[in-house]
Amino acid sequence: MNPEDPKLRNLLREARVSPSLPPRFQENVWRRIEDAETAAKEGPGWLNTLVFLVLRPRFACATAVILILAGAVFGAHAGSKVVKQDAEARYIASVAPSTLR
Amino acid sequence: MNRPLFIFVAALILGAGIFAGSYFGARHVCVASAGRSTDDLAWLRDEFHLSPADMTRIRQLHEGYMPQCMQMCARIAAKKHEVEAALGRGTNVTAEARKKLAELGELRAQCQAQMLQHFITVSQAMPAEQGQRYLSEMKRLTLGTHEELEQSMSADHDHGIH
Fold first, then answer.
1. Using CB atoms, which residue from A51, A63, A101 is nearest to B15?
2. What is the pLDDT of residues B59-83, one digit of tens each?
3. Is A12 among the domain residues?
4. Eight-class DSSP state of A56
5. Is residue A99 part of a domain?
6. Would you say A60 and A54 are in contact if contact means Cβ atoms under 8 Å apart?
7. What sections of B35-51 are H helices per DSSP?
8. Which pLDDT does position A65 carry in this prediction?
9. Chain A: which residues have CB within 8 Å of chain B?
10. Domain B42-161 belongs in CATH node 1.20.120.1490
11. Which residue on chain B is closest to A90 by alpha carbon?
């Protein structure tokens, strides 16, 4: 058997099996390229982690409850301050004429 | 804007909205539930933690002082009219206008002295510590604005000189 034999070479070339591509091969390649680019654009890892944390229902509910409570406490404090200032102004107006102040 | 950043900003805005809604809601409820007190002395009772007995004494003093205060206010208002009439439409401050201004100043000083005397009397009707606090607070609230004005004016003068 002479490997340099042209007939033999032709026969071998024809006998080589070229594997068929899997279905939607090209589409999948492009999708993976796009996914890789999107991941690169989506910013730093800490932001992703934070967003992942924020979107967890338990964390979101706890945060909402804390914000509502904090708002209510600060609001009630501010409201009582307004009430106190009104009462003080009322007393001052009754004893000290505005012409003297 | 990329998606995680958008979600993060939206969450921050939502959180701020929740806090603001709760804050203003509670503030409004607090003010509305307190209502507008019709008692002029309610602040004294709450601020200086006065007992009903203290309040009774102070209410008597307050009611005794009010007619004097109103009378003095009426005299000041009348004197102000006299000053305006004396000033008229002229461009000079006449001797008559000066006299009326001096009388107005004298009346205001009398009114102020009467007011301070009332504050002293009321402070003596309170427990000692609260009385001291009341008196200094009243001086600050009724005389403080004059002092601030005078200080700002003297500061302006100094600034002008230098």
1. A63
2. 999 999 999 888 988 999 899 999 8
3. no
4. S
5. yes
6. yes
7. 42-47
8. 96
9. 41-43, 47-48, 50-51, 54-55, 60, 63-64, 67-76, 78-80, 82-84, 86-88, 90-92, 94-97, 99-101
10. yes
11. B40
ipTM: 0.72
Tell me if A71 and B18 make a contact (CB, 8 A cut-off): yes
Task: Report the number of distinct structural domains present in chain A.
Answer: 2
CA angle, B98 then B101 then B104, to 5°: 155
Q: A61 and A101 in one domain? A: yes
pTM for this one? 0.63
Instruction: Determine the Cα–Cα distance for residues A99 and B9; give it in Å rounded to an integer.
Output: 52
Q: Domain residues for A48?
A: 25-55
**Residue ranges per domain, chain B?**
1-36, 42-161
In this structure, the answer to whether residues A97 and A64 fall within a common structural domain is yes
**What is the 8-class DSSP label of residue A22?**
P
**Overall residue count recorded for chain A in this entry:** 101
Considering only alpha carbons, which residue of chain A is nearest residue B143?
Answer: A101
Domain-embedded: residue A71: yes
Nearest by CB to residue B3, choosing from A42, A86, A88, is A42
Residues of chain B with Cβ-Cβ distance to A94 below 8 Å are 40, 62, 66
Pick from B100, B106, B132: nearest CA to B119: B132
Q: Does B104 contact A at CB distance below 8 Å?
A: no
- Nearest residue in B to A47, CA atom: B4
A14, part of any domain: no
- Same domain, yes or no: A80 and A94: yes
